[in-house]
From TrEMBL, chain A:
Signal peptide segment: none
Superkingdom classification of source: Bacteria
Protein name (database record): ThiS protein, putative
InterPro entries named among the record's database cross-references: Beta-grasp_dom_sf, Mopterin_synth/thiamin_S_b, Thi_S, ThiS/MoaD-like
One family name in Pfam for this protein: ThiS
Family annotation (PANTHER family): SULFUR CARRIER PROTEIN THIS
Native organism: Shewanella benthica KT99
From TrEMBL, chain B:
Signal peptide: none
Protein name, as recorded: Thiazole synthase
HAMAP family associated with the record: ThiG (MF_00443)
Gene3D superfamilies xrefs: Aldolase class I (3.20.20.70)
Phylogenetic placement of the source organism: Bacteria, Pseudomonadati, Pseudomonadota, Gammaproteobacteria, Alteromonadales
Organism: Shewanella benthica KT99
Length: 80, 256
């Protein structure tokens, strides 16, 4: 049994994740940098929380989005 | 040179990035102020409007960024915010601020000390924003904070050094740098803080809300330098009675 997802069936396998309270439907097998790219979020300047835990940047590539995941993206803003 | 943790600063004026009317103005004002340490906040990204995109210009300008934990209402949230900041900026420096009261933004001393302990244990360089409480500042120093940041008056109030008596005690006792933060509303107040022996001041609203923030940034730069120079030169004692500066020979009485 192969766990590989081919390009043809990727679009058929849809999952739902939450990103800052917005529902997003994705193809399964997408990793975290892929999710950010899809949402036009510059990966260099944000931090990510996945299911209540800070997800270190060193683990983004290996982390695949799973159905029901709750992501929160934080960015820097002006402040004193 | 001022040294905090292992970092040296040639300017003793630290600045915030909030309340400027435009990012370009903020950048120019900070550049003209000579500030080398600049605070920033964090928030959940609005997916519709995106981010302010002020990070890259600031990084390019060469200043060191100091993320804060503003918005945290307790120690747990502040630790979480610090971990987010570390991921975001790849820095272990954090301005620890916990102020659950929205009216006066008074920092919560108990939660701040608790968070400081945890963050210092985790290897963060912790700069806590606190009330001008000499006992609390000693406790924060003991748990490993790299500096203390007592307030002059409420955040953004421009009231100046309302806490001067207690700032003097903190400065006298501290073995870590003392950065007077919050409430400094005029360059003369920054000078005063530095004359007292503060190691640095942090200014945001006074620059950002002035009519000409770029010029005001320059004013604060020279005010801080003047105050530091005066501190090093050693202020004279304050007396309750007059002390003559010219000889009182009483010659008029002798001749008339």
């Amino acid at each position: 049994m192969s766990h590989k997802i081919s390009a043809s069936n990727r679009s058929e396998t849809s999952i739902k994740v939450m990103l800052n309270d917005e529902q997003i439907f994705l193809s399964s097998g997408l990793n975290v940098p892929g999710l950010l790219q899809l949402q036009n979020i510059a990966a260099s300047s944000v931090a990510l929380v996945r299911n209540g835990q800070v997800l270190p940047k060193s683990r983004w590539k290996e982390t695949l989005c799973r159905d029901g995941d709750q992501f929160e993206v934080f960015a820097l803003v002006a402040g004193g | 040179m001022l040294t905090i943790a292992d970092h040296q600063f040639s300017s003793r004026l630290f600045t915030g990035t909030g309340k400027f009317s435009t990012s370009a103005l903020m950048l120019e004002a900070i550049t003209c102020s000579g500030s080398e340490l600049v605070t920033m906040a964090m928030k959940r990204l609005d997916l519709k409007t995106g981010s302010d995109d002020i990070l890259q210009p600031l990084l390019s300008s060469g200043v060191k960024l100091l993320p804060n934990t503003s918005g945290a209402r307790n120690a747990k949230e502040a630790v979480f915010a610090a971990e987010l900041a570390r991921e975001m900026l790849d820095t272990s420096w954090i301005k620890l601020e916990i102020h659950p009261d929205p009216k006066y933004l008074m920092p919560d001393p108990i939660e701040t000390l608790e968070a400081a302990k945890i963050l210092c244990d985790k290897g963060f360089i912790v700069l806590p924003y606190v009330h001008a409480d000499p006992v609390l500042c000693r406790r924060l120093e003991e748990v490993g904070c790299a500096a203390v940041m007592p307030l002059g008056s409420p955040i953004g109030s421009n009231q100046g050094l309302v806490t001067e008596t207690f700032l003097k005690m903190i400065i006298e006792q501290a073995r870590v740098p003392v950065i007077v933060d919050a409430g400094i509303g005029a360059p003369s107040q920054a000078t005063r803080a530095m004359e007292l022996g503060a190691d640095a001041v942090l200014v945001n609203t006074a620059i950002a809300s002035s009519r000409d923030p770029v010029a005001m940034g320059r004013c604060f730069a020279s005010a801080v330098q003047t105050g530091r120079d005066a501190y090093l030169a050693g202020l004279g004692h304050v007396n309750s009675v007059a002390s003559q500066t010219s000889p009182l020979t009483g010659f008029l009485n002798d001749t008339m």
